[in-house]
Write a structure and sequence with these properties.
The chain is of the alpha/beta class. The strands form three sheets. The chain has a five-stranded mixed beta sheet, sandwiched between helices. The longest helix is centred in the last third of the chain and has 35 residues. The protein is globular and about 55 Å long. The two termini are 33 Å apart.
């Protein structure tokens, strides 16, 4: 259900959108602060549109959740209440099943592989699947590669996780993933993870480098293994109602600007990852890079079987796993 604040905003946004002419400001909702990589991507999108249309098309970015939560702004976009919104994959999986494939654990072999899928025809297939639900998928942004960290010892293979209590988000797929690896999934709020690690409530958790560093989880759990088990992307979507009002040329301008903004977002994200990695290495964290990835992936068979629920999803999984990334995309540490 849309939050009350968003319900009150909807008429205002609809009125604003209906009056767009000339400079065409498109309203873009962003839950992250102004200095976050996805927000910088949206600011770049506005800049690119301004340059290519001589100011005829612009994007007005509202960062920091000013227009509501990601769930709320996604619903507003479906009903034409906001033009653009950047959301994580979670809210989309509940309405567009094909998107959930991209959240499968150990689906991608590397960040380069993931990015090649997001930017290629298979990624476009997923984005196009949103049209049936009142949305136009524009592009994928990165949200990092999640890896396991713990208080005990380096994790190099699934057996190293046997019996560990591992904090996971309150998500069925994460619970089943950790269980399939022989550990005990423990859903607890993110804000409680640090104390839970210190007090031994959990033995480990999982997240990307920037989160691990900024929350100082490395102080309590100094073993970080580059499992890179989930690389679910962020998604930039346009309201289907907004898209329908644009001319063919305007759609081309918007899509091209969105595609260009991905490079800006990734550049900022990669810089953040490298900074976090240097800081935790300097703090004495053991970063484990040599792992038995095939054993981890084989452990996921029951998880994939449960969550791949249609022939379309199965076909997409097969195409992703059989694809090869271009060698020039991404990097070994570009999370």
């Amino acid at each position: 259900m849309i939050a009350r604040r968003s319900i009150l905003l909807a008429p205002l946004l609809l009125t604003a959108c209906s009056k767009r002419r000339g400079a065409r400001p498109l309203f873009a909702a962003e839950s992250q602060p102004a200095d976050y990589p996805t927000t910088k991507g949206l600011f770049a999108l506005d800049r690119f549109l301004d340059e290519t249309t001589n100011g005829e098309m612009r994007v007005r970015v509202y960062p920091g959740g000013q227009l509501g939560s990601e769930e709320a702004t996604l619903e507003l976009a479906v009903f034409g209440g906001v033009d653009l919104t950047r959301v994580n994959l979670g809210p989309l999986t509940s309405i567009a099943p094909l998107t959930s494939v991209l959240a499968l654990p150990f689906l991608f072999r590397s960040i380069a592989h993931a990015r090649s899928i997001f930017d290629g025809p298979l990624g476009r297939t997923v984005l196009d699947s949103l049209e049936a639900y009142g949305l136009r998928g524009l592009c994928f942004y990165d949200s990092g590669a999640r890896s396991f960290y713990n208080t005990r010892h380096p994790i190099r293979a699934p057996e190293d996780m046997a019996g560990m209590k591992v904090r996971v988000p309150n998500s069925d797929i994460y619970v089943e993933m950790v269980r399939a690896l022989g550990a005990n999934p423990t859903p607890i709020p993110f804000g409680e993870v640090y104390q839970s690690l210190v007090q031994g409530v959990v033995d480990g958790a999982e997240n990307n480098f920037p989160s691990y560093e900024s929350t100082r989880h490395f102080e309590a759990a100094p073993f970080y293994s580059l499992t890179q088990h989930v690389m679910a992307p962020e998604v930039l979507v346009a309201s289907g109602a907004t898209w329908a009002k644009l001319s063919v040329e305007e759609r081309q301008f918007l899509q091209a600007a969105a595609d260009r903004s991905v490079r800006v977002m990734r550049s900022n994200w990669d810089a953040r990852v490298e900074t976090a990695r240097r800081r935790i290495a300097a703090a004495g964290v053991t970063i484990v890079e040599e792992l038995d990835q095939s054993a981890f992936k084989q452990s996921m068979a029951p998880v994939w079987e449960r969550f791949v629920t249609s022939p379309k999803m199965a076909s997409l999984v097969d195409q992703i796993t059989q694809s090869q990334p271009p060698p020039s995309i991404g990097g070994s540490h570009s999370e």
